[in-house]
Design brief:
240 residues, alpha/beta, five-stranded mixed β-sheet, three-stranded mixed β-sheet, 8 helices, 11 strands
Length: 240
Amino acid sequence: KINVTILTFSGETVAALSIVSSLPILSLKQQLGDPALIALHWEGKVLQDSETASSLAWPSEVTLTKVEMTFDHERPIKVLRDPKRKTCAVMDADEARRMCAAMKELLLKEPIILDLQAPLVISAHFTGNLDALNYVFNTFGEPGEPSQTSHLILGNYVNKGKNGIDVMILLFCLKQKCPGQVHLLRGKHECSSIARIYGFYDECKQRFPSRSGVKLFRYFMEVFDSLPLAAVIQSRVFCV
Protein backbone atom coordinates (compact mmCIF):
# COMPACT_ATOMS: atom_id res chain seq x y z
CA LYS A 1 0.00 0.00 0.00
CA ILE A 2 1.09 3.56 -0.77
CA ASN A 3 -0.29 6.58 1.07
CA VAL A 4 -1.06 9.38 -1.39
CA THR A 5 -1.79 12.97 -0.37
CA ILE A 6 -3.27 15.14 -3.11
CA LEU A 7 -3.00 18.93 -2.96
CA THR A 8 -4.37 21.73 -5.10
CA PHE A 9 -1.96 23.99 -7.00
CA SER A 10 -2.33 26.50 -4.13
CA GLY A 11 -1.40 23.88 -1.50
CA GLU A 12 -4.79 22.90 -0.07
CA THR A 13 -5.40 19.20 0.68
CA VAL A 14 -7.89 17.56 -1.67
CA ALA A 15 -7.70 13.93 -0.58
CA ALA A 16 -5.64 11.38 1.29
CA LEU A 17 -5.78 7.89 -0.21
CA SER A 18 -4.19 4.51 0.23
CA ILE A 19 -3.58 2.73 -3.08
CA VAL A 20 -1.93 -0.41 -4.38
CA SER A 21 1.25 0.00 -6.41
CA SER A 22 -0.35 -1.48 -9.55
CA LEU A 23 -3.15 1.14 -9.71
CA PRO A 24 -2.93 3.19 -12.94
CA ILE A 25 -2.90 6.96 -12.69
CA LEU A 26 -6.11 6.98 -14.75
CA SER A 27 -7.93 5.06 -12.01
CA LEU A 28 -6.62 7.47 -9.41
CA LYS A 29 -7.90 10.42 -11.44
CA GLN A 30 -11.29 8.73 -11.79
CA GLN A 31 -11.59 8.72 -8.01
CA LEU A 32 -11.11 12.49 -8.01
CA GLY A 33 -13.58 13.40 -10.76
CA ASP A 34 -13.65 13.55 -14.55
CA PRO A 35 -10.18 12.29 -15.62
CA ALA A 36 -10.29 14.36 -18.82
CA LEU A 37 -10.39 17.51 -16.69
CA ILE A 38 -7.71 16.56 -14.15
CA ALA A 39 -3.92 16.58 -14.36
CA LEU A 40 -1.75 15.12 -11.59
CA HIS A 41 1.81 16.30 -11.00
CA TRP A 42 4.59 14.67 -8.99
CA GLU A 43 7.95 16.34 -8.43
CA GLY A 44 7.38 18.68 -11.39
CA LYS A 45 6.35 15.85 -13.72
CA VAL A 46 2.95 15.49 -15.38
CA LEU A 47 1.78 11.94 -14.70
CA GLN A 48 0.49 9.90 -17.65
CA ASP A 49 -2.71 7.86 -17.42
CA SER A 50 -0.96 4.54 -18.11
CA GLU A 51 1.73 4.99 -15.44
CA THR A 52 1.48 3.23 -12.07
CA ALA A 53 2.99 3.80 -8.66
CA SER A 54 5.22 0.79 -9.31
CA SER A 55 6.53 2.09 -12.64
CA LEU A 56 7.19 5.47 -11.03
CA ALA A 57 9.02 3.82 -8.12
CA TRP A 58 7.00 5.72 -5.53
CA PRO A 59 8.02 5.47 -1.88
CA SER A 60 5.48 4.48 0.77
CA GLU A 61 4.23 8.06 1.01
CA VAL A 62 3.90 10.59 -1.83
CA THR A 63 2.35 14.00 -2.36
CA LEU A 64 0.74 14.89 -5.69
CA THR A 65 -0.60 18.16 -7.05
CA LYS A 66 -4.01 18.17 -8.70
CA VAL A 67 -4.68 20.70 -11.45
CA GLU A 68 -8.33 20.96 -12.44
CA MET A 69 -9.41 21.89 -15.94
CA THR A 70 -12.73 23.30 -17.02
CA PHE A 71 -11.99 22.47 -20.64
CA ASP A 72 -10.24 19.76 -22.65
CA HIS A 73 -6.64 20.97 -22.98
CA GLU A 74 -5.21 17.86 -24.65
CA ARG A 75 -7.11 18.06 -27.95
CA PRO A 76 -6.11 21.67 -28.78
CA ILE A 77 -2.47 20.88 -27.97
CA LYS A 78 -2.56 17.86 -30.27
CA VAL A 79 -4.19 19.79 -33.12
CA LEU A 80 -2.09 22.96 -32.86
CA ARG A 81 1.19 21.06 -32.51
CA ASP A 82 0.48 18.98 -35.63
CA PRO A 83 2.63 20.27 -38.54
CA LYS A 84 0.05 18.88 -40.99
CA ARG A 85 -2.90 20.70 -39.41
CA LYS A 86 -5.45 21.92 -41.93
CA THR A 87 -7.57 23.91 -39.50
CA CYS A 88 -7.05 25.88 -36.33
CA ALA A 89 -10.73 25.87 -35.30
CA VAL A 90 -10.03 23.92 -32.11
CA MET A 91 -12.48 25.65 -29.74
CA ASP A 92 -15.90 27.22 -29.90
CA ALA A 93 -16.58 30.50 -28.15
CA ASP A 94 -17.99 28.90 -25.00
CA GLU A 95 -15.01 26.60 -24.50
CA ALA A 96 -12.63 29.50 -25.13
CA ARG A 97 -14.48 31.50 -22.46
CA ARG A 98 -14.06 28.65 -19.96
CA MET A 99 -10.39 28.40 -20.88
CA CYS A 100 -9.89 32.11 -20.19
CA ALA A 101 -11.71 31.85 -16.85
CA ALA A 102 -9.50 28.93 -15.79
CA MET A 103 -6.35 30.77 -16.88
CA LYS A 104 -7.31 33.93 -14.99
CA GLU A 105 -7.86 31.90 -11.82
CA LEU A 106 -4.51 30.14 -12.24
CA LEU A 107 -2.54 33.32 -12.99
CA LEU A 108 -3.97 35.25 -10.06
CA LYS A 109 -2.31 32.72 -7.75
CA GLU A 110 1.12 33.66 -9.13
CA PRO A 111 3.19 36.63 -7.92
CA ILE A 112 3.56 39.69 -10.13
CA ILE A 113 7.32 39.00 -10.33
CA LEU A 114 8.17 35.32 -10.81
CA ASP A 115 11.09 33.74 -8.97
CA LEU A 116 12.42 31.03 -11.32
CA GLN A 117 15.28 28.57 -11.48
CA ALA A 118 17.40 27.57 -14.47
CA PRO A 119 17.45 25.82 -16.87
CA LEU A 120 14.83 27.70 -18.86
CA VAL A 121 14.14 28.29 -22.53
CA ILE A 122 13.48 32.03 -22.93
CA SER A 123 11.57 33.33 -25.95
CA ALA A 124 9.29 36.21 -26.91
CA HIS A 125 7.50 38.22 -29.60
CA PHE A 126 5.52 35.58 -31.46
CA THR A 127 2.85 38.18 -32.39
CA GLY A 128 0.36 35.71 -33.83
CA ASN A 129 2.90 33.41 -35.50
CA LEU A 130 1.95 29.87 -34.50
CA ASP A 131 4.67 28.31 -36.66
CA ALA A 132 7.35 30.29 -34.81
CA LEU A 133 6.01 29.08 -31.45
CA ASN A 134 5.96 25.48 -32.65
CA TYR A 135 9.52 25.91 -33.95
CA VAL A 136 10.68 26.81 -30.44
CA PHE A 137 8.93 23.76 -28.97
CA ASN A 138 10.26 21.47 -31.71
CA THR A 139 13.81 22.77 -31.27
CA PHE A 140 14.10 22.99 -27.50
CA GLY A 141 11.39 20.62 -26.28
CA GLU A 142 7.69 20.92 -25.47
CA PRO A 143 6.66 21.34 -21.82
CA GLY A 144 5.60 18.03 -20.29
CA GLU A 145 6.54 14.54 -21.41
CA PRO A 146 9.08 13.49 -22.49
CA SER A 147 11.32 16.58 -22.46
CA GLN A 148 10.25 18.18 -19.16
CA THR A 149 11.52 21.47 -20.64
CA SER A 150 10.59 24.69 -18.83
CA HIS A 151 9.79 27.80 -20.86
CA LEU A 152 9.69 31.49 -19.98
CA ILE A 153 7.95 33.61 -22.61
CA LEU A 154 8.35 37.35 -22.31
CA GLY A 155 5.10 38.45 -23.92
CA ASN A 156 3.90 39.94 -27.22
CA TYR A 157 1.86 36.89 -28.15
CA VAL A 158 -0.78 38.53 -30.36
CA ASN A 159 -1.32 41.19 -33.07
CA LYS A 160 0.26 41.51 -36.53
CA GLY A 161 0.15 37.74 -37.29
CA LYS A 162 -3.06 35.94 -38.23
CA ASN A 163 -2.96 33.21 -35.55
CA GLY A 164 -2.91 35.15 -32.29
CA ILE A 165 -5.89 33.23 -30.93
CA ASP A 166 -4.21 29.91 -31.68
CA VAL A 167 -0.94 31.04 -30.08
CA MET A 168 -2.88 31.89 -26.92
CA ILE A 169 -4.91 28.67 -26.96
CA LEU A 170 -1.76 26.57 -27.27
CA LEU A 171 0.07 28.48 -24.53
CA PHE A 172 -2.94 28.52 -22.21
CA CYS A 173 -3.52 24.78 -22.67
CA LEU A 174 0.14 24.01 -22.00
CA LYS A 175 0.05 26.30 -18.95
CA GLN A 176 -2.97 24.41 -17.63
CA LYS A 177 -1.31 21.07 -18.30
CA CYS A 178 2.14 22.02 -16.94
CA PRO A 179 1.81 25.14 -14.76
CA GLY A 180 5.29 24.71 -13.31
CA GLN A 181 6.96 24.48 -16.72
CA VAL A 182 5.21 27.27 -18.64
CA HIS A 183 5.76 30.83 -17.43
CA LEU A 184 4.03 33.65 -19.30
CA LEU A 185 4.82 37.36 -18.86
CA ARG A 186 2.83 40.31 -20.09
CA GLY A 187 4.23 42.25 -23.05
CA LYS A 188 3.25 45.58 -24.58
CA HIS A 189 0.84 43.89 -27.02
CA GLU A 190 -1.16 42.34 -24.16
CA CYS A 191 -3.02 45.62 -23.73
CA SER A 192 -6.56 46.42 -24.84
CA SER A 193 -5.75 49.71 -26.59
CA ILE A 194 -2.87 48.20 -28.59
CA ALA A 195 -4.66 44.92 -29.35
CA ARG A 196 -7.62 46.86 -30.78
CA ILE A 197 -5.37 48.66 -33.26
CA TYR A 198 -2.87 46.00 -34.34
CA GLY A 199 -5.12 43.10 -35.25
CA PHE A 200 -6.12 40.89 -32.32
CA TYR A 201 -9.52 42.55 -31.89
CA ASP A 202 -10.34 42.04 -35.58
CA GLU A 203 -9.07 38.46 -35.42
CA CYS A 204 -11.46 37.69 -32.54
CA LYS A 205 -14.41 39.17 -34.46
CA GLN A 206 -13.53 37.20 -37.59
CA ARG A 207 -13.05 33.90 -35.80
CA PHE A 208 -16.19 34.23 -33.67
CA PRO A 209 -18.89 36.21 -35.52
CA SER A 210 -21.66 38.30 -33.97
CA ARG A 211 -21.07 39.46 -30.41
CA SER A 212 -19.14 36.34 -29.41
CA GLY A 213 -15.87 37.66 -30.82
CA VAL A 214 -16.15 40.97 -28.96
CA LYS A 215 -16.90 39.16 -25.71
CA LEU A 216 -14.00 36.76 -26.25
CA PHE A 217 -11.66 39.70 -26.84
CA ARG A 218 -12.68 41.04 -23.43
CA TYR A 219 -12.08 37.63 -21.82
CA PHE A 220 -8.57 37.53 -23.29
CA MET A 221 -7.91 41.06 -22.01
CA GLU A 222 -8.91 39.98 -18.49
CA VAL A 223 -6.37 37.16 -18.69
CA PHE A 224 -3.70 39.53 -20.03
CA ASP A 225 -4.39 41.86 -17.09
CA SER A 226 -3.61 38.92 -14.78
CA LEU A 227 -0.22 38.02 -16.31
CA PRO A 228 2.97 38.52 -14.27
CA LEU A 229 5.05 41.51 -15.35
CA ALA A 230 8.59 40.22 -14.81
CA ALA A 231 10.70 37.26 -13.73
CA VAL A 232 13.95 36.86 -11.81
CA ILE A 233 16.05 33.79 -12.61
CA GLN A 234 18.19 32.51 -9.73
CA SER A 235 18.38 36.03 -8.26
CA ARG A 236 20.68 37.08 -11.10
CA VAL A 237 18.77 37.59 -14.36
CA PHE A 238 15.87 40.04 -14.55
CA CYS A 239 13.44 39.41 -17.41
CA VAL A 240 10.63 41.61 -18.73
